[in-house]
Amino acid sequence: MDGRGVPLSIIVTAANRHDVSQLAAVLDAMVVPRPLPRERRSQHFCADAGYTGMPACVIIETHGYMAHVKGRGQEAEEKRRHPTTRARRWIVEVAHSWFNRFRKLLVRSEKLERSFLGLTHLAAAIIALRKVPVAINIIYG
Fold first, then answer.
1. Is 103's pLDDT higher than 60?
2. Mind listing the pLDDT tens digit for each residue in 72-98?
3. Which residues make beta-bridge pairs with 45?
């Protein structure tokens, strides 16, 4: 996801696979090429405590990102100190709920992986289209 919640990459795996094991595949499958950062600015990668560990940090850094991975205790401590600020990764959690609004994706009934991947790409395209600012309503004119 980018900073606005637009999906940039989708990988379909079995439900019992851990997210960190597919990190390299997700970063390699990005559809939109990443723009080069301006001088002295880097691209940030915000993740939850599941991505702690040296193998994940190496993968994140080899793809050119600066890792922001915090454990549960660190997040709770920051929330106690600054109660009004939100976590940086909240947009990913919101985007997952946007995918859950597509009822065909919520409970997977597709037998073939390519069918489910196609439906997921369609949902991602609809989410991305909703993020485009328009001057008039496309549906009602």
1. yes
2. 677 777 778 877 776 666 677 777 788
3. 67
- Contacts of 29 by beta carbon, 8 Å cutoff, 6+ apart: 9, 10, 11
Token pair of 88, please?
Answer: 């940086």
Q: Using a cut of 0.85, tell me whether the model's pTM lies above it.
A: no
Which amino acid, residue 117?
Answer: L
Distances (CA, A) of 110 to 17, 31, 59: 18, 24, 32
Give the start-to-end residue ranges of the domains of the chain: 19-130
CA distances to 25, 40, 71, 90 from 29, rounded to whole Å, are: 6, 26, 27, 22
- For 64, 68, 77, 80, the CA distances from 27, given in Å and listed in that order, are 10, 16, 30, 33
pLDDT digits (tens, 9 = 90+) for 19-36: 788 888 888 888 777 667
Dist CA 6 CA 29 (whole Å): 15
